[in-house]
Input
Amino acid sequence: MEYKDYYKVLGVSKDATQGEIKKAFRRLARKFHPDVNPHNPQAEERFKEINEAYEVLADAEKRQKYDELGAEWYQYQQQGGRPEGFDWSRWTTGAPGGQQRVYVRYGTPEDLEDLFGGRSPFSDFFTNIFGGMRGQAAGEREYRVRPQPGQDFDLQAEITLREAYQGSTRLLEKDGRRLEVKIPPGVRTGTRVRLAGEGGPEAAGGQPGDLYVQVQVRPDPVFEREGDNLHTEVPIALYTAVLGGETRVPTLTGDVMLTIPPGTQNGQEFRLRGKGMPHLGDHDRYGDLYAEVNVRLPTELTPRQQELFDELRRVDQQRS
Output
């Protein structure tokens, strides 16, 4: 019988934590899963090794026994012993009559049969050393199903920019229950709000899935958003642009007065610090509001206004 180095299979050290073992298993299982590698015998065998190694190292009882066996095995090798001469008898757990009981973390019996075409997913080493642990009646085969999480669900919720600024709530109904979805300030289109445990029902004793509400922020007629910053257009009279003055600027918390210096040009932007959107997850941080000036020219002049503009033109021509 061939000794299996499960630590090497998962690529972890012998003092690896359970978290490190689980992380390594998940990474390798995704890479070599038969569904990802159809008609690839090498990937299938690798997946079997990975699953078998995790079955042992993720179980405290099995891992303890394996570590004790490994210590004796390496000591035997260092003393020059040959593999065929190693005494396996004190380590095997076979049931009477040569029948073995296998405890499986991965899937159900049907899953395994479908995945491996009815073939055993475990090596002789595993079934001889660990197959009869946690003793059942002779000849039984027990499959311990690894808990499978329920399916995650996705919904969409449309909100206004002002709701994105202040935060909002939406009410949903699920299985006769009303769920309140709290949408935090600062969300933007694509933000997902998670309701833990409100997805599909659990499978095999695992946790239920989650419900994700994906936010869609409707376009706003006044403000254009860019990250946490906002942009808006502010119309001002020609006289204000030339002589200076004040104008009202809309913000999401109410209008503010903006001082316009003399000689302001059309299209010039003014920055209002902290008048933008709150930063998602840090409501003490805000973006800025950029107000772009749109100088409005008078279209219907009185005779007196026409006379004054003519006078201004003559003065300007004389200066040049």
